[in-house]
Design a protein that fits this description.
- There is one protein chain.
- By secondary structure, the chain is mainly alpha-helical.
- It has two domains: about 120 residues, Winged helix-like DNA-binding domain superfamily/Winged helix DNA-binding domain (Arc Repressor Mutant, subunit A); about 50 residues, no CATH class.
- Helices cover about 60% and strands about 5% of the residues.
- Strands 1-2 form a two-stranded antiparallel ribbon.
- Helix 2 crosses helix 3.
């Protein structure tokens, strides 16, 4: 699995190496035959929206898996149903640790993202006073979160040094928000 993450992690980015995406697709196909759209939705659900591959990533990966004999396709009208082959199962078995690590990481990152969304984007709370907490600043928090996401989006492919610098900034900000002193 050279060239992909091989379960090493997402780092600051959302991009997944093509070989890792192919491995995840094989893992999903091993569970049951799927259409390309179902693969996209399943990765979206498992990562709780953190990783949603585009059709432009998934369909070429499926075509490649078919070309190398790791998947087969059955055409039903305008839709294609993909299934894993024996060679695909063997490849998945050889790389099962990497596939499991990727799926585990999807779950962890998805859980973290879900907590952030719940904490920061609870649209139902509105401006009312809940338990003595005034929600009047919610608009400012949403704007700040939007600005932060935008800034991070520009840095997804940054060097490891830049990622470390950004992580330190975010850790200091989190500590300040929690009201803790920096060491």
């Amino acid at each position: 699995m050279e060239g992909g993450m091989g379960g090493r992690g997402f780092g600051m980015g959302r991009k997944l190496g093509s070989q890792d995406l192919q491995l995840l697709i094989l893992k999903l196909l091993a569970e049951k035959p799927r259409h390309g759209y179902e693969i996209i939705k399943e990765l979206d659900e498992r990562s709780k929206g953190f990783y949603v591959p585009s059709p432009g990533m998934v369909y070429p990966a499926l075509t490649y898996l078919e070309e190398i004999g790791h998947a087969t396709v059955a055409v039903h009208g305008a839709r294609k149903l993909y299934s894993i082959t024996e060679p695909g199962k063997e490849h998945l078995t050889e790389n099962s640790a990497a596939a499991e690590a990727l799926l585990t990481q999807f779950g962890r990152v998805g859980d973290r993202m879900d907590r952030v969304r719940r904490a920061m984007l609870d649209e139902e709370a509105g401006e009312e006073d809940l338990g003595g907490r005034h929600r009047g600043g919610r608009k400012e928090l949403k704007r700040a979160l939007h600005d932060l996401r935008s800034a991070l989006g520009e840095k997804w492919g940054a060097s490891i040094e830049e990622q470390q610098r950004i992580a330190a900034i975010l850790q200091r900000a989190a500590a300040e928000i929690h009201g803790r002193d920096q060491e």
